[in-house]
Amino acid sequence: MKASNTLTLLSAALLLSACGGEGDNTQARGPDPKLPEQQSSLLPSMKIAEPTPWGNEKPKVPDGYSVTAIATDLAIPRQTLVLPNGDILVAEGRGGSAAKLKPKDVIASVIKAQGNTKVKSGNRITLLRDADGDGTYELKTVFADNLNAPYGLAFADGKLYVANQDALVRFDYTDGQTKASGAPVKVTDLPAQINHHWTKSLAVSDDGRHLYVGIGSNSNITERGMEVEIDRAMVWQVDATTGAHRPYATGLRNPTALTIQPDSGQLWTVVNERDELGPDLVPDYLTSVREGAFYGWPYSYWGQNVDPRAQPQNPAKVAAAIKPDYSLGSHVAALGVDFSIPAMGEQFAEGVFVGEHGSWNRDNPVGYKVIFVPFSHGKPAGQPIDFATGFRGDDGKTRGRPVGVTVDPKGALIIADDLANTIWRVTRNQ
Predict the structure, then answer these.
(1) Can the peptide bond before residue 62 be classed as cis, meaning omega within 30 degrees of 0?
(2) What is the layout of strands, in order, in the sheet containing 88-92?
(3) Quick one: which of 152, 170, 174 has its CA closest to 161?
(4) Are the C-beta atoms of 103 and 9 separated by less than 8 Å?
(5) How high is the mean pLDDT of the chain?
(6) Is the CB of residue 274 less than 8 Å from the CB of residue 301?
(7) Residue 404: in which H helix or E strand, if any?
(8) Backbone φ, ψ for residue 123 (5° rounding)
(9) Where does residue 211 rank: exposed (0-12), middle (13-18), buried (19+ CB within 10 A)?
(10) DSSP summary character for residue 347
């Protein structure tokens, strides 16, 4: 398409972004969402997340809780990890190299870029330490650098594992160390061609024997062909010692964060679903990850709801697709998940915190907050509860965008904000 036509479409998209639209109350959440009819259009609705500094403001948290910025001026913080001694590691970086296939891809990239930080990718891991336990992290130092868009973090048996966009690596770790003692050792290569979805999420089993890596698709809905989707849209199980890996669960379009449920050892994930079926389709979701299960992508969504864009159709795969456990709402872009503990307070004692990075393809944006999904008897139960809000203000301006969420055993929630390049810490008031 000629440049003039592309510019015309871009102008139309920007006009659309200025219009009001559907409200948050159109979103279906919970274990049994009522899904609307599919919609299609030349361009999806788009809304620029206009950034503005926090200034003297902070995220809003529930009564009885306080929030503090414990680290600022980072280089795109994504996920965090609390080490056994209480130190916090922060993975910083930006990856991806996917070419734009259509004019709408160019337009979408422009819209998205308006709502992202302009800071250069850190490609590093930063360590934060509060030596005296007063809530002030007086040490901020680079633990490891020259990495390749690190994202997922996990620790077990004296080993620190890092999921770069192209490889799973490990560092030997000694309690109290503030800098990696050497170069990382590769555990296994990870799919890195194109990297439409570049983030590689990570969790480790309770016994430290297996690592789980979430690998997103190389497209929205197979527009690049199925050949580039080999080993993608799935969770790998990796032998921590040998690096041998196998598909653990498939049909997960973009499993952006993984966590292990306490006591049961069950693996859970949050997944970013497909776009361009309307502002209220398809819901991003929270789900347990069942070994050998197929979750639908690209052929269907939320069980057997067929996506006609996936060609050729595959009725057998559709029939095998299972429903996720819990809808988070469409386009909220969940990028973080972690199980809570009783120290977080009675209302938040059992369930998961979810970091919602926020939409770009709805007239009325959704997400831009951290929610709590209550659990009962090991499963999600009830409506989500807003826990940290204000990232997108009533003025329509965006001060921050939550990514990873990590529950500190001391009784705090650690939130990575990749727009403000800040780490927030939420605690109960004493």
Answers:
(1) no
(2) 77-82, 88-92, 124-129, 139-144
(3) 170
(4) yes
(5) 91
(6) yes
(7) strand 402-408
(8) 50, 45
(9) buried
(10) G
Q: Look at the block and give the residue holding tokens 């690998």.
A: 215
pLDDT at 13: 39
92 touches 121 (CB < 8 A): yes
Q: What is the spatial distance between Cα 237 and Cα 110, in angstroms, rounded to a whole number?
A: 36
Q: Cα–Cα distance between 104 and 219 in angstroms, integer?
A: 14
Strand partners, 161: 154, 170
Give 146's pLDDT tier (boundaries 50, 70, 90): very high
Please identify which residue in the block is written with the tokens 């050729």. Answer: 312
Euclidean distance between CA atoms 389 and 155, whole angstroms: 29
The tokens for 251 are 């049909």
Pairing of strands 167-172, 185-189: antiparallel
- List, as one string, the DSSP characters of 16-53: HHTS----GGG---BSS---------SS-------B--
> What pLDDT, in 10s, does the model give residues 76-102?
999 999 999 999 999 999 998 666 566
Per-residue burial over 70-102, b = 16 or more CB atoms within 10 Å of its CB, e = otherwise: bbeebbbbbbbbbbeeebbbbbbbbbeebeeee
- Retrieve residue 54's tokens: 């926090």
CA dist., res. 340 & res. 317, Å (int): 35
Closest to 82 measured CA to CA, from 139, 153, 181, 143: 153
The secondary structure of residue 14, as a DSSP letter, is H
Residues near 375 by beta carbon (within 8 Å), at least 6 away in sequence: 350, 351, 352, 381
- As a whole number of angstroms, the distance between CA 216 and CA 392 comes to 26
Measured CA to CA, the distance from residue 339 to residue 333 in angstroms comes to: 18
Q: Contact, 361 vs 46, CB < 8 A? A: yes
Domains of the chain: 3-24+37-428 (2.120.10.30)
Distance from C-alpha of 364 to C-alpha of 355, rounded to nearest angstrom: 19
Spell 347-376 as b/e; 16+ CB within 10 A means b: ebebbbbbbbbbbbbbbbbbbbbbbbbbbe
The answer for residues whose C-beta is within 8 angstroms of residue 208's C-beta and 6 or more apart is 156, 157, 159, 240
Confidence of residue 360 (pLDDT cuts 50, 70, 90): confident
